[in-house]
Amino acid sequence: MTVKMPLITGWNFLNFDWRYLVNRARKLTKTVNNQTMIIDPKISSHTRRLRTLFGTDYEVPMHRMVFDYMQLYEVADTSIKVKESSSLDFVSSKLVGVEKIKYNGSLQKLYEDDFETFMYYNAVDSALVQKIHQSKNYISIIFAISSLSQIKVTDVVSQMNNALASLAITEGVLRGRFREMQNVVLFKDENFSSQSAKGIAGGYVMDPVQGMNLWVACYDFASLYPTTMDQFFIAPETFVGVQGEDKAYCFNGNKRTKIDKTIHVVCNNGCVFKKELTPTLKMIKDVYADRKKNKKIMMQKKEELNKVLHEIQKLEATI
User: Where do the domains of the chain lie?
Assistant: First the structure.
């Protein structure tokens, strides 16, 4: 009998259940024709191959989806304003109004003392994950991102949870823009690895001043980074170089370029960019415009919903 199981999921599944199953399979043995053999976890794949999710150490089957529904909730949910916990008990109680089965002692003790309740506990956990899926359907968001960026569905979640790996989603979206505007070919640097990228310096964060302070203010700028990139033409393909001490030339490796304020922008940190509408900047403009349009629609629908709820309250009061 062949069981078709194209998708495997659960709650905290990759980090616990799936990792346990893979390691357990490698430690167990079976006897075939009087020969002792290790149970190879690669049999979980149609192709008898495992692959490592980009940016993680999770080994998953090739051509079979294995993902963690808890990760989908963490990256896609907007209904729970204060996420006190990512536990199934907390999330299911908030989203579907049902909590996990409670028991005393450890799960191992429950297994040994009351196997029927142990099985019921696990069955309810599976049902709760299914109810959360039916209620919110987070996987549709992941499918949409996969279709937009043209990357594997199984890679989307791992990349959304990894700051370095999330670049693959952006690169996927940009490929189409590059083809439309400039026939630029993107290639993978085989010498690059996520380990080597850990040494790349990011933004500078000042040490906080300890103690009580007067007149503390917090400023929240709307879409600060994309707006700044659009204003100063900041993009990988517009980068010319870093301004030299004489401020008349900028340098990019061995290449020297004379700075022309009519076609160049010089930022405060000395980086020089060319004034040119490139695929990256065009994408930022389009995405920002779509965001403003959809946010306006969202606010309008929210007002309409509030009006309907108000009418329902009036009817209930009348009844």
Answer: 1-79+137-190, 224-280
